[in-house]
Design goal:
Length: about 350
């Protein structure tokens, strides 16, 4: 078998079960690195692309963008990496490196030839994966490779706004939706030193959330509970993908507070201008993060011993794992272990 043949699991059409799929990746490009997959986190974004919910999927889809593995090949232009090194790959596989966002260190906002790891590109539901060398993120030696994968998408998604909004230990941050992203947000904010309020529709999670670091827990379905939070939060991280009572949540913000959108809510958000103006409040959003932010996150997680709470499935049971994710029963992130 050619060294360029990749074994994978792919969805051949929208919504289909994943099936074994083999393809020839061709010669490694000079700027690329090839990684042998050890573990790959399973993310709701994988499901969205497999089901073509965003209308941008390119079939067959080989999902998987929370990848941990070891380098097997280096292109001639790759720098600062070595064969055998353990690394990670997240949502982005390529960026142009010459547009204004790229040269300013915001490669995640690349306006040139950017490629998502699982859109028109083969991801980590495979024995090997390739990406541009700048997006190959070295894994600190004391970070557990089994649980590190979800940090590369879900983790960076909630970590990047902490950096962007210059959050400090004196700030009070709320997390809306405590699933795969939300539970990592609580752990990171706890290590950051913040006061944390978890907004959840499932109060059965309360003990778990306190153990993760939540100081307060609010029933997100209780209007009176929401009213009691008026004027408290410097930042709200919204990880859900459903519409909420946005006016009520805006009222929970302190002056200069921000709701930061991380979940892909597909319906337009009715935002009263008067509420924004009177409290100098804002609504923002962001994708994942730059290679530098990813390196910062992994180093911080290693130093503070932060790890997502995971369930592990062999990659050969990928459809069972997808069903577990779809059912909403995962606590809190699923990781696939390569067993090709």
């Amino acid at each position: 078998m050619s060294a360029n043949i990749i074994q994978s699991y792919a969805a051949l059409e929208a919504g289909a079960e994943l099936v074994p799929y083999q393809f020839d990746a061709g010669d490694l490009a000079p700027h690329q690195v090839e990684v042998k997959v050890e573990y790959c986190g399973l993310c709701h974004s994988d499901v969205s692309v497999i089901n073509n919910e965003w209308g941008n999927a390119v079939f067959p889809v080989v999902g998987g963008h929370e990848i941990i593995g070891t380098i097997t090949q280096l292109g001639s232009e790759a720098k600062g990496l070595k064969v055998g090194q353990r690394v990670g790959i997240g949502w982005t596989a390529e960026s142009c490196q010459h547009c204004d966002p790229c040269v300013s260190g915001q490669q995640v906002l690349c306006t040139g030839e950017k490629k998502a790891t699982i859109v028109g590109h083969a991801g980590g539901f495979a024995d090997k994966v390739r990406a541009g060398w700048q997006w190959i993120i070295p894994l600190p030696e004391n970070l557990d490779p089994e649980s590190a994968g979800p940090l590369l998408c879900g983790g960076i998604t909630v970590f990047d706004p902490i950096l962007k909004h210059q959050i400090q230990a004196v700030h009070h941050v709320g997390v809306i939706g405590i699933g795969g992203l939300g539970h990592m947000a609580i752990k990171l904010l706890k290590a950051w030193g913040c006061e944390i309020t978890a907004f959840t529709s499932n109060l059965d999670k309360s003990d778990e959330l306190r153990a993760m670091g939540a100081d307060h827990i609010v029933n997100s379905r209780d209007a009176n509970d929401l009213k009691a939070q008026r004027g408290k939060f410097d930042l709200l991280l919204c990880t859900v993908n459903v519409s909420l009572d946005w006016k009520a949540y805006l009222n929970t913000l302190a002056p200069n507070g921000t709701i930061h959108m991380l979940g892909m809510v597909l319906e337009p958000m009715p935002i009263p201008a008067g509420t924004l103006i009177s409290g100098a409040k804002s609504v923002t959003g962001s994708p994942t993060g730059s290679p530098f932010a990813l390196r910062q996150l992994l180093q911080f997680a290693a130093r503070k011993n932060i790890a997502p709470q995971i369930e592990v499935y062999p990659m050969s049971k990928i459809n069972d794992a997808l069903e577990r994710l779809h059912s909403g029963k995962a606590r809190y992130r699923i990781v696939l272990k390569a067993d090709f």
